[in-house]
Every structure is written in C-alpha cells, then in structure tokens.
Specification:
2 strands; 2 helices; two-stranded antiparallel sheet; little secondary structure
C-alpha cells in the first residue's frame, strides 16, 4: 500500500486519512520534487545601492550642500 500526503506545520497529513487505523507504524520516503529547468532562478549579481534607489533621486527638495553640511542642517552646528 502506498499513500501520498503533505507536511503541514511539521505533521504529515495523508491525502486519504481513513486508509490507516490509528497507531499504524509507517515509513516515510520523501517524493522527489521536479523543478522545471526554466523555473530555476539564475544567479544574478545584486544591484548596487544606487541602482536600487535611483528612482528616489531628487524625491525631496533640499539645499545643494546638504551632503557636505548635514551636521549644520540636522544639528544646527555652525557651517564650516
């Protein structure tokens, strides 16, 4: 007799739960999963920070010297 089922929350649930009486010992052999070759993701190099967030460039209005003088704008220290 061969049964099929799935694992749900760490418990094996057979497709036909009435096929075996309670307390029956069983052996478990995982079924091979077939992954189509087209579905296998290619190893892509990750995008750089600039590429990932380029769409946000210029999203806010800020002074042109914000990067150089961020302490002045954030903390109120004198400009250098």
């Amino acid at each position: 007799m061969e049964l099929e089922g799935v694992v749900q929350n760490g418990v094996i649930v057979p497709d036909d739960a009435t096929a075996l009486p309670e307390g029956t010992r069983v052996g478990i052999t995982p079924a091979p999963t077939e992954v189509p070759k087209a579905a296998t993701p290619k190893a892509e190099t990750p995008k750089s920070f600039g590429e990932r967030y380029a769409e946000f460039c210029g999203a806010i209005e800020a002074p042109e010297d914000l990067a150089a003088r961020h302490e002045h704008y954030r903390l109120g220290t004198p400009k250098r």
